[in-house]
Amino acid sequence: MRIVIVGNGPASASAIEAFRRVDADSEIVVLSREEFPTYAPNCMENVIRGDISEEALFYKGGYSFYERHKVDFRPNKEVVSVDNKRKVVLIRGGEEIYYDKCLLAAGAYAFVPPIQGVELSGVTTAKDLYDARRIRDWVLLGRIRSVVIVGAGPIGVEDAETFKHMGLEVHVVEFFDRALPRMLDKFMADRYLKPLEEEGINFYLNHQVVAIHGEDGWVEAVEIRPNGTDKSKFIKADMVILSTGVRPRTNLVADTDIKIHINEVTGRVVGGVLVNEYQQTSDPDVYAAGDICSGLDAWGNWRWIALFPTAQQSGAIAGFNMAGLKVRNPGLVDYNAVKTRVVTAGSGGVFEDAEESFTFEWEGKLVKVFLKEGNVCGYQFVGVEKKRGINSRNLFTRSKSVRGWADKVLADRGLGLESSGVLFHHFIKFKDRKIQDNVLKAIKNGMLRPLGNPALEVPIF
After folding, report:
1. Which of 224, 244, 264 is the last residue of a domain?
2. What pTM was computed for the model?
3. pLDDT in tens, 179-206
């Protein structure tokens, strides 16, 4: 049997590991549009700063990963479409590769809004390793003094803090009335934003970018306007980072009968390739995992969730099932956190249509829990981390080359994803039962489990 995996990110790597635990002999072909082995996509700001080791970035072990798992890894092979009737994938340039089973794990691409001037040099996204290395080169060359970041989502605010630590003047323009608009409500976002502003990062909320201006082909300024007005102001910029979201690579199935996530009421596309609990698309021989697909989340909602934990989980489920098992996905996880160091924030679940909420303090964080029909449907947290010692086990921190601003970055390192994982796995236990007084008391007292690993769960009552 031949397995063809389109994509080379976390979903792909997890699928390979799961498949090989069951099937040691079938052929696995991995097609990647990039030249690199699997890398950590949530560490691009670390690449820009230069504070991540090769071992940490290429977290599966680099090219040896494919050797250990007997994988035919083919870099620089961009798949442009899938022909599921003929069971082949088509590569740019005309090459076709047949499959018995195919996994779509091509992820998402950075959305570039139709703004005048986006074609100027110095304007870039910050989504992949090519982007991160290019940005770092520009900064190290000394030509960047002021940067404008368009979008205050997780990547936008992480990059903002990174550039501030690197000595740049930083401006962030956000269309909505708050930072992290998909993660936090206004109250929580305001608390999160204050420490970043005190660090000297300039935020322009409720603003939109009208145009990007430059001379001799390189960006020089960004024109912005407050929403609802026609009064422009200009921000000097030597570099512009477009952090305006991502879109799933559903173009791969555009000419097929494979279903994608559509709102049945409006008919509008609202997500990626649609999969069932076994990560199968509407074609049972074509699977999908990671940022390219939509599935049922742990709260029972059909969602498109472009996050690292989701990609790893769905990839493993797909791998087991392509190998012949019948493993159901218990629900996509959607806990997320930003890796800013002066303040941490995270969220999970859904909260837009919550009926009520309550807050409590836990480990120096303000936690807000959202309820619908008496059940937990989501949570958010924001808090200033206490000073923490440097982890002596980290390869980078042991390096004698850590000097200057890098020491400051390491000294005020903030945690986030760990906290969000603990909260998510705790609250998921209550998603299908009413919140009684004793449960409320336990939550408000911070009686959360110490680890985000379900295998180590200890009941709190």
Report:
1. 244
2. 0.90
3. 999 999 999 999 999 999 999 999 999 9
